[in-house]
Amino acid sequence: MLDIRLFRENPESLKSALRNRNYDTSIVEEIISLDTKVRQLTNEVNQLRAQRNNISKRVAQVKARGDEQEATQLAEEGRKINERIESVEKELDEIREKLNRLMLYVPNIPHESVPVGPDETHNVEVRRWGEPRKFDFSPKAHWDLGPELGLMDFDRAAKLSGSRFTIMYSALARLERALINFMLDLHTKEHGYTEVWVPHLVKRSTMTITGQLPKFEEEAYRIDSDDLFLIPTAEVPLVALRADEILEERQLPLLYTAYTPCYRREAGSYGKDVRGMIRQHQFDKVELVWVTTPERSYQDLETLVQHAEEVLRRLELPYRVVLLCTGDMGFGAAKTYDIEVWLPSYNSYKEISSCSNDADFQARRGNIRYRRRDGKLEFVHTLNGSGVAIGRTLVAIMENYQRKDGRIDVPKALQPYLGCEVIP
């Protein structure tokens, strides 16, 4: 959620930022109109209350001197003022509710360092690491390789759950588990994160804090009877851990990591990456979340990206880092880097991690503040990133480490976790 002062003081600048994000700017005028009405009604209520208080004092004075007729007239005047106050307060509550809800539909403002552009064609490549492997045979896509090894089953997954689900057996199932442990160990033992085990079902208010609701409710899986949502990412509960709290500056930054399955309906993505494990309704991910101060958050974002990159470096998987332009960023992000791993089946790089600084956007929604050393209260900044997506990492290993005979070499970093050098 944005600071309402942006709408009051810099509406044209705000509109320009929204246009850069391909967003309808008419919402700015609607919010300004509602905010103006709220302030007018608030002022009216305050004036009416002052009149009521003044009448109460006069009634007491009049009664003290025994003038019952004037006291009755004043009491009637006070009754009418009370009725007006009730009417205005009801209208005020309705407008405030509409204003607050409308504010939840406005995306974050891009940081000044974000390139301006309408779509992914204007993203900027920052760096690359590693060289794509040159095969002396025709490499297989994971959706062919896995089933041929008898370790990956899309047909039976569809029988159980429908499209975009996967069953894995034996060595691939263990590889998935090995990747989870490897990533958590790296981030907790070497990068300083606190591991957190979080609920996979969360309340509507929790989903609202990170920006999934109300705008993207159609993309979430919801348990209607309880109004609970399956998390689309561990970012949701990790950020909300500190909702409605005041932290001390000395506590920051807080670094959290969590492994969870993630659940997304992928509404509107039909026809995209339908084969294999690239775009699933259920997938595993190790998430990284920072709660930090405004002064250091953009430098912390660079560190967060490096932590995610280190996973791919240890696994010796070629990748590149891309800075997203204004038109390609997520709803809550002020700045985002995507890390893309090389996949032979696509002959290109595919996103495996997205790392964002949301600035105070989520903190305002969740009322997460900190007390500066000078005593002043401010909203924290929150960062999030995949550290990294487990399924896509498994796919990258299968495709980049495959042998001509169909077997798959195990990256050295994973051999202690898997207990073997080759799959199967």
Characterise this structure.
The protein has helices at residues 4-9, 11-20, 26-64, 68-103, 142-148, 154-161, 170-190, 204-209, 235-240, 297-314, 361-366, 390-400, 415-418; strands spanning 124-129, 152-153, 167-168, 194-195, 201-203, 222-223, 228-230, 246-248, 254-263, 282-292, 319-323, 335-343, 348-357, 369-371, 377-379, 381-389, 408-409, 422-423. By secondary structure, the chain is an alpha+beta fold. It folds into 2 domains: 4-103, Serine-tRNA synthetase, tRNA binding domain (Helix Hairpins, Orthogonal Bundle), CATH 1.10.287.40; 120-423, BirA Bifunctional Protein, domain 2 (2-Layer Sandwich). The two termini are 49 Å apart.
Quickly describe the structure.
By secondary structure, this protein is α+β, with helices and mostly antiparallel strands. It folds into 2 domains: 4-103, Helix Hairpins; 120-423, 2-Layer Sandwich (BirA Bifunctional Protein, domain 2).
Itemize the secondary structure elements and their pairings.
Blueprint: H1 4-9, H2 11-20, H3 26-64, H4 68-103, E1 124-129, H5 142-148, E2 152-153, H6 154-161, E3 167-168, H7 170-190, E4 194-195, E5 201-203, H8 204-209, E6 222-223, E7 228-230, H9 235-240, E8 246-248, E9 254-263, E10 282-292, H10 297-314, E11 319-323, E12 335-343, E13 348-357, H11 361-366, E14 369-371, E15 377-379, E16 381-389, H12 390-400, E17 408-409, H13 415-418, E18 422-423
Parallel strand pairs: 4-9, 8-14
Antiparallel strand pairs: 1-11, 2-3, 5-7, 6-7, 9-10, 10-16, 11-12, 12-13, 13-16, 14-15, 17-18
Helix pairs in contact: 3-4, 7-12
